[in-house]
Amino acid sequence: MKKKNIIKYSFLICCIFFTSNTLLGQAxxxxxxxxxxxxxxTNKVVQLTDSITYxxxxxxxxxxxxxxxxxxxxxxxxxxxxxxxxxxxxxxxxWVPLQKEQYVWDTNGKMTDKVTYIWDKATKVWTGxxxxxxxxxxxxxxTQSLCYDWDSGSSEWEQSTKTDYIYDExxxxxxxVIYNWDETTGQxxxxxxxxxxxxxxxxxxxxxxxxxxxxxxxxxPDTKIENVYDVNGNIKVYSSYSLYxxxxxxxxxxxxxxxxxxxxxxxxVFTYKDGQCDKDEKYENSYDDNGNIIQLITYKWDKIANxxxxxxxxxxxxxxxxxxxxxxxxxxxxxxxLWVINKKYDYNRTxxxxxxxxxxxxxxxxxxTYDFRFTDYSTIHNIVGIQNPVQEHNEVCIRQAExxxxxxxxxxxxxxxxxxxxxxxxxQLSQPIENNTTTQIRVDDLISGLYxxxxxxxxxxxxxxxxxx
Length: 469
Prior knowledge:
Number of domains: 1
Helix content: under 10%
Shape: globular
Strand content: over 45%
Radius of gyration: 23 Å
Structural class: mainly beta
Protein backbone atom coordinates (compact mmCIF):
# COMPACT_ATOMS: atom_id res chain seq x y z
CA MET A 1 0.00 0.00 0.00
CA LYS A 2 1.27 3.39 -0.90
CA LYS A 3 1.49 5.43 2.29
CA LYS A 4 1.65 9.20 2.48
CA ASN A 5 3.41 10.31 5.62
CA ILE A 6 1.91 13.76 5.70
CA ILE A 7 2.55 14.88 9.26
CA LYS A 8 5.57 13.88 11.27
CA TYR A 9 5.28 14.25 15.01
CA SER A 10 8.23 15.01 17.18
CA PHE A 11 7.59 12.85 20.15
CA LEU A 12 6.28 9.45 21.20
CA ILE A 13 3.95 8.83 24.10
CA CYS A 14 3.00 5.34 25.25
CA CYS A 15 -0.54 4.46 26.05
CA ILE A 16 -3.21 2.86 28.13
CA PHE A 17 -4.70 -0.45 27.06
CA PHE A 18 -8.21 0.08 25.75
CA THR A 19 -10.70 -2.69 24.98
CA SER A 20 -13.59 -1.52 22.86
CA ASN A 21 -17.20 -2.15 23.85
CA THR A 22 -19.04 -0.05 21.31
CA LEU A 23 -22.23 0.58 23.27
CA LEU A 24 -23.52 3.23 20.87
CA GLY A 25 -22.48 1.59 17.67
CA GLN A 26 -20.25 -0.83 15.84
CA ALA A 27 -17.45 0.19 13.48
CA UNK A 28 -16.83 -2.08 10.52
CA UNK A 29 -13.58 -2.47 8.65
CA UNK A 30 -13.39 -1.40 5.04
CA UNK A 31 -9.66 -1.86 4.51
CA UNK A 32 -8.63 1.77 4.24
CA UNK A 33 -11.98 3.33 5.09
CA UNK A 34 -14.90 2.21 7.22
CA UNK A 35 -18.59 2.78 7.87
CA UNK A 36 -20.34 3.21 11.20
CA UNK A 37 -23.45 1.25 12.12
CA UNK A 38 -25.20 2.96 15.04
CA UNK A 39 -27.89 0.31 15.44
CA UNK A 40 -29.14 -2.85 13.83
CA UNK A 41 -31.44 -1.07 11.40
CA THR A 42 -30.88 -2.06 7.80
CA ASN A 43 -30.10 1.27 6.18
CA LYS A 44 -27.60 3.98 7.05
CA VAL A 45 -26.37 7.17 5.45
CA VAL A 46 -22.64 7.73 5.91
CA GLN A 47 -19.93 9.93 4.46
CA LEU A 48 -17.06 8.00 2.89
CA THR A 49 -13.89 9.12 1.16
CA ASP A 50 -14.00 8.73 -2.59
CA SER A 51 -10.57 10.13 -3.42
CA ILE A 52 -7.54 11.94 -1.99
CA THR A 53 -5.19 14.05 -4.08
CA TYR A 54 -1.61 14.99 -3.12
CA UNK A 55 0.15 18.07 -4.45
CA UNK A 56 3.48 19.87 -4.13
CA UNK A 57 3.87 23.55 -4.84
CA UNK A 58 6.11 24.53 -7.74
CA UNK A 59 7.79 27.75 -6.59
CA UNK A 60 9.31 28.54 -9.97
CA UNK A 61 6.02 28.35 -11.83
CA UNK A 62 3.92 29.46 -8.85
CA UNK A 63 1.40 26.64 -9.15
CA UNK A 64 0.34 23.41 -7.50
CA UNK A 65 1.46 20.16 -9.16
CA UNK A 66 -0.22 16.81 -8.59
CA UNK A 67 1.97 13.87 -7.66
CA UNK A 68 -0.41 11.25 -6.31
CA UNK A 69 -4.02 10.20 -5.94
CA UNK A 70 -5.94 7.54 -4.02
CA UNK A 71 -9.38 6.25 -5.04
CA UNK A 72 -11.89 4.13 -3.08
CA UNK A 73 -14.88 2.03 -4.13
CA UNK A 74 -17.45 0.46 -1.80
CA UNK A 75 -20.06 -2.27 -1.81
CA UNK A 76 -23.66 -1.90 -0.60
CA UNK A 77 -22.56 -2.47 3.00
CA UNK A 78 -20.01 0.33 2.90
CA UNK A 79 -17.06 -2.07 2.71
CA UNK A 80 -14.12 -0.86 0.68
CA UNK A 81 -13.82 -3.37 -2.17
CA UNK A 82 -11.22 -1.52 -4.22
CA UNK A 83 -8.41 0.84 -3.24
CA UNK A 84 -6.28 2.26 -6.07
CA UNK A 85 -3.27 4.57 -6.12
CA UNK A 86 -2.03 6.68 -9.02
CA UNK A 87 1.00 8.74 -10.00
CA UNK A 88 0.69 11.96 -11.96
CA UNK A 89 2.25 11.99 -15.42
CA UNK A 90 3.24 15.59 -16.20
CA UNK A 91 4.06 14.80 -19.82
CA UNK A 92 0.42 14.25 -20.81
CA UNK A 93 -1.33 15.49 -17.64
CA UNK A 94 -2.88 12.15 -16.81
CA TRP A 95 -3.13 9.76 -13.87
CA VAL A 96 -1.08 6.57 -14.25
CA PRO A 97 -2.10 3.46 -12.28
CA LEU A 98 0.40 2.46 -9.62
CA GLN A 99 -1.14 -0.11 -7.30
CA LYS A 100 -4.52 -1.52 -6.39
CA GLU A 101 -5.95 -3.67 -3.62
CA GLN A 102 -9.12 -5.73 -3.90
CA TYR A 103 -11.06 -6.96 -0.86
CA VAL A 104 -13.64 -9.65 -0.11
CA TRP A 105 -15.91 -9.43 2.97
CA ASP A 106 -18.07 -11.93 4.82
CA THR A 107 -21.61 -11.29 6.05
CA ASN A 108 -20.28 -9.99 9.39
CA GLY A 109 -18.25 -7.28 7.73
CA LYS A 110 -14.95 -9.11 8.17
CA MET A 111 -12.30 -8.97 5.48
CA THR A 112 -11.56 -12.52 4.40
CA ASP A 113 -9.38 -11.84 1.40
CA LYS A 114 -7.12 -9.04 0.20
CA VAL A 115 -5.17 -9.14 -3.07
CA THR A 116 -2.56 -6.53 -4.02
CA TYR A 117 -1.48 -5.78 -7.59
CA ILE A 118 1.06 -3.39 -9.14
CA TRP A 119 0.76 -1.80 -12.57
CA ASP A 120 3.38 -2.80 -15.11
CA LYS A 121 3.95 0.36 -17.16
CA ALA A 122 5.78 -1.53 -19.89
CA THR A 123 3.15 -4.23 -20.54
CA LYS A 124 0.25 -2.14 -19.22
CA VAL A 125 -1.17 -5.03 -17.20
CA TRP A 126 -1.74 -5.66 -13.49
CA THR A 127 0.73 -8.04 -11.81
CA GLY A 128 0.01 -9.83 -8.54
CA UNK A 129 2.06 -9.01 -5.42
CA UNK A 130 0.51 -10.77 -2.44
CA UNK A 131 -2.72 -12.29 -1.24
CA UNK A 132 -3.97 -12.40 2.38
CA UNK A 133 -6.65 -14.86 3.53
CA UNK A 134 -8.04 -14.35 7.04
CA UNK A 135 -10.24 -16.52 9.27
CA UNK A 136 -12.13 -15.53 12.43
CA UNK A 137 -13.68 -17.13 15.52
CA UNK A 138 -17.28 -16.80 16.67
CA UNK A 139 -16.39 -13.60 18.55
CA UNK A 140 -15.11 -11.87 15.44
CA UNK A 141 -11.44 -12.14 16.42
CA UNK A 142 -8.98 -12.98 13.68
CA THR A 143 -7.47 -16.40 14.40
CA GLN A 144 -5.25 -16.96 11.39
CA SER A 145 -3.85 -14.99 8.47
CA LEU A 146 -2.26 -16.73 5.49
CA CYS A 147 -0.09 -14.76 3.08
CA TYR A 148 0.72 -15.82 -0.47
CA ASP A 149 3.21 -14.21 -2.86
CA TRP A 150 2.74 -14.12 -6.62
CA ASP A 151 5.21 -16.25 -8.59
CA SER A 152 5.52 -14.68 -12.03
CA GLY A 153 7.35 -17.74 -13.34
CA SER A 154 4.61 -20.23 -12.58
CA SER A 155 1.83 -17.62 -12.61
CA GLU A 156 0.57 -18.99 -9.31
CA TRP A 157 0.18 -17.87 -5.72
CA GLU A 158 2.93 -19.39 -3.55
CA GLN A 159 2.68 -19.86 0.22
CA SER A 160 4.68 -17.26 2.15
CA THR A 161 3.77 -16.69 5.82
CA LYS A 162 1.20 -17.75 8.40
CA THR A 163 0.19 -15.85 11.54
CA ASP A 164 -1.76 -17.49 14.39
CA TYR A 165 -3.55 -15.36 17.00
CA ILE A 166 -4.14 -16.70 20.54
CA TYR A 167 -6.64 -15.20 22.99
CA ASP A 168 -7.39 -15.66 26.69
CA GLU A 169 -10.76 -16.51 28.21
CA UNK A 170 -11.76 -12.84 27.95
CA UNK A 171 -11.02 -12.87 24.22
CA UNK A 172 -8.05 -10.54 24.64
CA UNK A 173 -5.08 -11.19 22.36
CA UNK A 174 -2.23 -12.60 24.45
CA UNK A 175 0.03 -14.13 21.82
CA UNK A 176 0.79 -13.98 18.13
CA VAL A 177 2.99 -16.54 16.37
CA ILE A 178 4.41 -15.97 12.89
CA TYR A 179 5.59 -18.76 10.58
CA ASN A 180 7.52 -18.72 7.29
CA TRP A 181 6.88 -21.22 4.51
CA ASP A 182 9.85 -23.52 3.84
CA GLU A 183 10.04 -24.78 0.27
CA THR A 184 12.45 -27.59 1.15
CA THR A 185 10.33 -29.23 3.83
CA GLY A 186 7.03 -28.13 2.39
CA GLN A 187 5.75 -26.82 5.71
CA UNK A 188 5.51 -23.71 7.84
CA UNK A 189 8.43 -23.10 10.20
CA UNK A 190 7.96 -21.00 13.30
CA UNK A 191 9.80 -17.65 13.24
CA UNK A 192 8.53 -14.95 15.61
CA UNK A 193 6.42 -14.89 18.77
CA UNK A 194 4.81 -11.80 20.30
CA UNK A 195 3.44 -11.96 23.84
CA UNK A 196 1.26 -9.49 25.75
CA UNK A 197 0.64 -9.13 29.51
CA UNK A 198 -2.01 -7.07 31.29
CA UNK A 199 -2.83 -6.00 34.83
CA UNK A 200 -6.17 -6.55 36.59
CA UNK A 201 -7.51 -3.36 35.03
CA UNK A 202 -6.78 -4.55 31.51
CA UNK A 203 -3.80 -2.26 31.07
CA UNK A 204 -0.97 -3.61 28.96
CA UNK A 205 2.04 -3.97 31.23
CA UNK A 206 4.39 -5.90 28.94
CA UNK A 207 4.98 -6.52 25.26
CA UNK A 208 7.63 -9.14 24.39
CA UNK A 209 9.11 -10.16 21.01
CA UNK A 210 11.00 -13.46 20.72
CA UNK A 211 12.69 -15.18 17.76
CA UNK A 212 12.91 -18.93 17.21
CA UNK A 213 16.42 -20.41 17.25
CA UNK A 214 16.47 -23.43 14.94
CA UNK A 215 19.84 -24.61 16.23
CA UNK A 216 19.08 -24.40 19.93
CA UNK A 217 15.44 -25.36 19.29
CA UNK A 218 14.16 -22.62 21.61
CA UNK A 219 12.71 -19.12 21.77
CA UNK A 220 15.19 -16.29 22.22
CA PRO A 221 13.66 -13.11 23.70
CA ASP A 222 14.82 -9.96 21.92
CA THR A 223 12.80 -6.83 22.69
CA LYS A 224 10.56 -5.93 25.62
CA ILE A 225 8.35 -2.97 26.53
CA GLU A 226 7.05 -2.35 30.05
CA ASN A 227 4.44 0.17 31.19
CA VAL A 228 3.78 1.48 34.72
CA TYR A 229 0.52 3.30 35.52
CA ASP A 230 -0.57 5.75 38.19
CA VAL A 231 -3.68 5.35 40.38
CA ASN A 232 -5.79 7.06 37.71
CA GLY A 233 -4.76 4.60 35.03
CA ASN A 234 -2.49 7.04 33.23
CA ILE A 235 0.80 5.75 31.87
CA LYS A 236 3.47 7.00 34.25
CA VAL A 237 6.63 5.29 33.00
CA TYR A 238 7.29 3.61 29.65
CA SER A 239 10.49 1.58 29.27
CA SER A 240 11.90 -0.39 26.35
CA TYR A 241 14.59 -3.06 26.68
CA SER A 242 16.86 -5.17 24.50
CA LEU A 243 18.34 -8.47 25.59
CA TYR A 244 22.14 -8.65 25.65
CA UNK A 245 23.36 -12.10 26.63
CA UNK A 246 21.18 -13.08 29.55
CA UNK A 247 20.51 -9.55 30.80
CA UNK A 248 17.81 -7.08 29.83
CA UNK A 249 19.30 -3.65 29.23
CA UNK A 250 17.09 -0.60 29.11
CA UNK A 251 17.24 1.34 25.84
CA UNK A 252 15.02 4.31 26.54
CA UNK A 253 12.54 5.49 29.15
CA UNK A 254 9.76 8.06 29.13
CA UNK A 255 8.15 9.67 32.17
CA UNK A 256 4.87 11.58 32.16
CA UNK A 257 3.22 14.24 34.32
CA UNK A 258 -0.50 15.01 34.17
CA UNK A 259 -2.77 17.81 35.33
CA UNK A 260 -5.98 17.31 37.32
CA UNK A 261 -7.92 16.66 34.10
CA UNK A 262 -5.61 13.86 33.02
CA UNK A 263 -3.87 15.89 30.33
CA UNK A 264 -0.20 15.26 29.66
CA UNK A 265 1.59 18.44 30.72
CA UNK A 266 5.13 17.09 30.55
CA UNK A 267 6.99 14.19 28.98
CA UNK A 268 10.67 13.54 29.62
CA VAL A 269 12.67 11.19 27.42
CA PHE A 270 15.79 9.40 28.71
CA THR A 271 18.29 7.40 26.66
CA TYR A 272 20.69 4.75 27.87
CA LYS A 273 24.12 3.79 26.60
CA ASP A 274 26.51 1.40 28.33
CA GLY A 275 24.31 1.54 31.38
CA GLN A 276 24.52 5.33 31.54
CA CYS A 277 21.23 7.24 31.72
CA ASP A 278 21.10 10.59 29.92
CA LYS A 279 18.31 13.09 29.57
CA ASP A 280 17.41 13.59 25.94
CA GLU A 281 14.22 15.57 25.26
CA LYS A 282 11.39 17.19 27.19
CA TYR A 283 7.94 18.27 25.99
CA GLU A 284 5.64 20.69 27.78
CA ASN A 285 1.97 21.15 26.85
CA SER A 286 -0.30 24.08 27.74
CA TYR A 287 -4.10 24.11 27.46
CA ASP A 288 -6.83 26.76 27.38
CA ASP A 289 -9.92 26.85 29.60
CA ASN A 290 -11.80 24.68 27.11
CA GLY A 291 -9.16 21.98 27.31
CA ASN A 292 -7.69 22.65 23.87
CA ILE A 293 -3.93 22.40 23.59
CA ILE A 294 -2.60 25.84 22.75
CA GLN A 295 1.14 25.33 22.97
CA LEU A 296 3.74 22.58 22.82
CA ILE A 297 7.37 23.39 23.60
CA THR A 298 10.21 20.97 22.91
CA TYR A 299 13.49 21.12 24.83
CA LYS A 300 16.82 19.40 24.24
CA TRP A 301 19.22 18.46 27.01
CA ASP A 302 22.54 20.33 26.89
CA LYS A 303 25.13 17.98 28.40
CA ILE A 304 27.80 20.68 28.58
CA ALA A 305 25.62 23.30 30.27
CA ASN A 306 23.77 20.57 32.17
CA UNK A 307 20.37 22.16 31.49
CA UNK A 308 17.34 22.10 29.22
CA UNK A 309 17.50 24.43 26.22
CA UNK A 310 14.60 25.52 24.03
CA UNK A 311 14.37 23.81 20.64
CA UNK A 312 10.92 24.05 19.02
CA UNK A 313 7.51 25.56 19.76
CA UNK A 314 4.06 24.77 18.35
CA UNK A 315 1.21 27.27 18.74
CA UNK A 316 -2.38 26.33 17.86
CA UNK A 317 -5.10 28.66 16.55
CA UNK A 318 -8.83 27.91 16.87
CA UNK A 319 -12.01 29.32 15.40
CA UNK A 320 -15.17 30.28 17.30
CA UNK A 321 -16.31 26.64 17.17
CA UNK A 322 -13.12 25.51 18.95
CA UNK A 323 -11.83 23.84 15.81
CA UNK A 324 -8.13 24.17 15.06
CA UNK A 325 -7.57 26.14 11.88
CA UNK A 326 -3.82 26.66 12.03
CA UNK A 327 -0.64 25.34 13.64
CA UNK A 328 2.43 27.59 13.79
CA UNK A 329 5.89 26.12 14.30
CA UNK A 330 8.85 28.10 15.64
CA UNK A 331 12.50 27.19 16.18
CA UNK A 332 14.68 28.66 18.90
CA UNK A 333 17.39 31.07 17.77
CA UNK A 334 20.08 30.78 20.43
CA UNK A 335 22.05 33.79 19.19
CA UNK A 336 19.07 36.15 19.16
CA UNK A 337 17.48 34.51 22.18
CA LEU A 338 14.00 34.35 20.63
CA TRP A 339 11.57 32.13 18.74
CA VAL A 340 11.72 32.36 14.93
CA ILE A 341 8.75 31.32 12.79
CA ASN A 342 9.53 28.34 10.55
CA LYS A 343 6.44 26.53 9.25
CA LYS A 344 2.67 26.52 9.46
CA TYR A 345 -0.14 24.04 8.87
CA ASP A 346 -3.55 25.25 7.68
CA TYR A 347 -6.68 23.11 8.06
CA ASN A 348 -9.81 23.77 6.01
CA ARG A 349 -12.99 21.75 6.19
CA THR A 350 -16.34 21.85 4.38
CA UNK A 351 -19.14 19.32 4.30
CA UNK A 352 -17.43 17.02 1.82
CA UNK A 353 -13.88 18.37 1.45
CA UNK A 354 -11.05 18.34 3.97
CA UNK A 355 -7.77 20.02 3.06
CA UNK A 356 -4.47 20.12 4.87
CA UNK A 357 -1.72 22.48 3.65
CA UNK A 358 1.83 23.20 4.79
CA UNK A 359 3.78 26.41 4.19
CA UNK A 360 7.36 27.43 4.96
CA UNK A 361 8.51 30.86 6.07
CA UNK A 362 10.92 32.57 3.67
CA UNK A 363 13.29 34.71 5.76
CA UNK A 364 14.62 36.49 2.68
CA UNK A 365 11.30 37.41 1.06
CA UNK A 366 9.67 37.70 4.50
CA UNK A 367 6.59 35.82 3.37
CA UNK A 368 4.97 32.37 3.42
CA THR A 369 5.68 29.95 0.57
CA TYR A 370 3.41 26.98 -0.13
CA ASP A 371 4.92 23.52 0.26
CA PHE A 372 2.47 20.62 0.25
CA ARG A 373 -1.25 19.87 0.49
CA PHE A 374 -3.65 16.97 0.35
CA THR A 375 -7.36 17.20 -0.36
CA ASP A 376 -9.86 14.58 0.78
CA TYR A 377 -13.09 14.37 -1.20
CA SER A 378 -16.02 12.44 0.26
CA THR A 379 -19.67 11.86 -0.57
CA ILE A 380 -22.77 10.58 1.20
CA HIS A 381 -23.45 6.87 0.68
CA ASN A 382 -26.63 4.93 1.40
CA ILE A 383 -25.45 1.85 3.24
CA VAL A 384 -27.31 -1.43 3.68
CA GLY A 385 -26.70 -2.36 7.34
CA ILE A 386 -25.59 -5.75 8.61
CA GLN A 387 -28.00 -7.47 10.99
CA ASN A 388 -26.74 -8.75 14.36
CA PRO A 389 -23.11 -7.71 13.99
CA VAL A 390 -20.42 -9.71 15.76
CA GLN A 391 -19.00 -7.81 18.75
CA GLU A 392 -15.32 -6.89 18.41
CA HIS A 393 -12.76 -8.04 20.99
CA ASN A 394 -9.44 -6.65 19.82
CA GLU A 395 -6.38 -5.02 21.30
CA VAL A 396 -5.22 -1.46 21.00
CA CYS A 397 -3.21 0.88 23.16
CA ILE A 398 -4.88 4.26 22.94
CA ARG A 399 -5.09 7.31 25.16
CA GLN A 400 -7.07 10.47 24.64
CA ALA A 401 -5.54 13.65 26.01
CA GLU A 402 -6.59 17.24 25.44
CA UNK A 403 -6.23 17.93 21.75
CA UNK A 404 -4.55 14.57 21.10
CA UNK A 405 -5.18 10.92 20.43
CA UNK A 406 -2.12 8.81 21.22
CA UNK A 407 -2.14 5.37 19.62
CA UNK A 408 0.25 2.48 20.18
CA UNK A 409 -0.24 -0.82 18.33
CA UNK A 410 1.68 -3.72 19.93
CA UNK A 411 2.14 -5.48 16.63
CA UNK A 412 5.25 -6.76 14.93
CA UNK A 413 4.75 -6.73 11.18
CA UNK A 414 1.69 -4.68 10.27
CA UNK A 415 1.15 -1.07 9.33
CA UNK A 416 -2.11 0.62 10.19
CA UNK A 417 -4.50 3.37 9.20
CA UNK A 418 -6.35 5.33 11.89
CA UNK A 419 -9.64 6.97 10.99
CA UNK A 420 -12.15 8.84 13.14
CA UNK A 421 -15.87 9.33 12.48
CA UNK A 422 -18.56 11.24 14.30
CA UNK A 423 -21.81 9.53 15.30
CA UNK A 424 -23.47 10.68 12.09
CA UNK A 425 -20.97 8.67 10.06
CA UNK A 426 -19.01 11.65 8.80
CA UNK A 427 -15.28 11.10 8.48
CA GLN A 428 -13.25 13.55 10.56
CA LEU A 429 -9.65 12.48 9.97
CA SER A 430 -7.40 9.77 8.55
CA GLN A 431 -3.73 9.11 9.31
CA PRO A 432 -1.26 6.23 8.83
CA ILE A 433 0.29 4.89 12.05
CA GLU A 434 3.31 2.63 12.50
CA ASN A 435 3.42 -0.58 14.52
CA ASN A 436 5.31 -0.62 17.84
CA THR A 437 5.50 3.17 17.75
CA THR A 438 3.20 5.57 19.52
CA THR A 439 1.63 8.01 17.06
CA GLN A 440 0.28 11.31 18.30
CA ILE A 441 -2.74 12.49 16.31
CA ARG A 442 -3.99 16.04 16.60
CA VAL A 443 -7.74 16.41 17.13
CA ASP A 444 -7.76 20.08 18.14
CA ASP A 445 -10.16 20.96 15.33
CA LEU A 446 -12.88 18.61 16.55
CA ILE A 447 -15.59 19.60 18.97
CA SER A 448 -15.99 17.73 22.26
CA GLY A 449 -18.08 14.56 22.21
CA LEU A 450 -18.12 10.85 21.44
CA TYR A 451 -16.41 9.58 18.28
CA UNK A 452 -15.91 6.17 16.73
CA UNK A 453 -12.53 5.01 15.48
CA UNK A 454 -11.27 2.24 13.27
CA UNK A 455 -7.64 1.06 13.15
CA UNK A 456 -7.03 -1.03 10.06
CA UNK A 457 -4.22 -3.24 8.82
CA UNK A 458 -3.85 -5.96 6.25
CA UNK A 459 -4.83 -8.61 8.79
CA UNK A 460 -7.08 -7.04 11.39
CA UNK A 461 -9.50 -4.37 12.45
CA UNK A 462 -9.58 -2.63 15.83
CA UNK A 463 -12.65 -0.54 16.46
CA UNK A 464 -14.11 1.35 19.35
CA UNK A 465 -15.16 4.71 20.74
CA UNK A 466 -13.26 7.61 22.26
CA UNK A 467 -14.62 10.69 24.01
CA UNK A 468 -12.92 13.96 23.09
CA UNK A 469 -12.95 16.58 25.83
